Amino acid sequence: MTPNPQVETVASGADRAKLAGALVLVVAAVAAFYLLGAQSLWVRVAALLVLLAAAVATFFTAEAGKRLIAFGRDAVREVKKVVWPTRKEAMQMTGYVFAFVLVMALFLWLTDKTLEWVLYDLVLGWK
């Protein structure tokens, strides 16, 4: 029984061109926002959003974008499989955590004070 080998896809020239185009669109969006400085804010924001939307659309047509969408779908499918605790179980576990933190805080405080007493009062004689 051999495990399935990981298959890597080699990026084609078209995919690289799509990714480069998306990057160029992002840079163009930022540049357009600042180059349109004399225009109204609404025009600048509209140019930025339109170019960013074009960049996102270009990215999602490339293989990397398609893999990202597939990953998101798989993640949603896995989250749907999770058995979430009931409110009562969640409250009980939260109470256990608070109780444990309180006990540990008291233990560490007592340990600190005990070591302080031993070192400063008994060993060094400082009072």
Overall description:
With 127 residues, the protein is mainly alpha-helical. The protein has two domains: 69 residues; 43 residues. It has four helices and no strands. Helix 1 packs antiparallel against helix 2. The longest helix is centred in the C-terminal third of the chain and has 37 residues. 5% of the residues are buried.
Fold blueprint:
Layout: H1 13-35, H2 41-61, H3 63-81, H4 87-123
Helix pairs in contact: 1-2
When the domains are counted, the total is 2
Computed structural class: mainly alpha
Into which percent range does the helicity of residues fall?
over 70%
Order of helices and strands: HHHH
Total count of helical runs of at least 4 residues:
4
Mean pLDDT: 91
Number of strands: 0
Inertia-based shape = elongated
Write down the Rg. Answer: 30 Å
Outline the low-pLDDT stretches.
Answer: none
Strand content: under 5%
* Major pleated sheet: none
CA distance, first residue to last residue: 72 Å
Family: Belongs to the SecE/SEC61-gamma family.
Pfam families: SecE (PF00584)
InterPro entries: SecE_bac, SecE_sf, Translocase_SecE/Sec61-g
Transmembrane segments: 19-36, 42-62, 90-110
Brief account:
The protein has 127 residues and is mostly helical. It has helices spanning 13-35, 41-61, 63-81, 87-123.
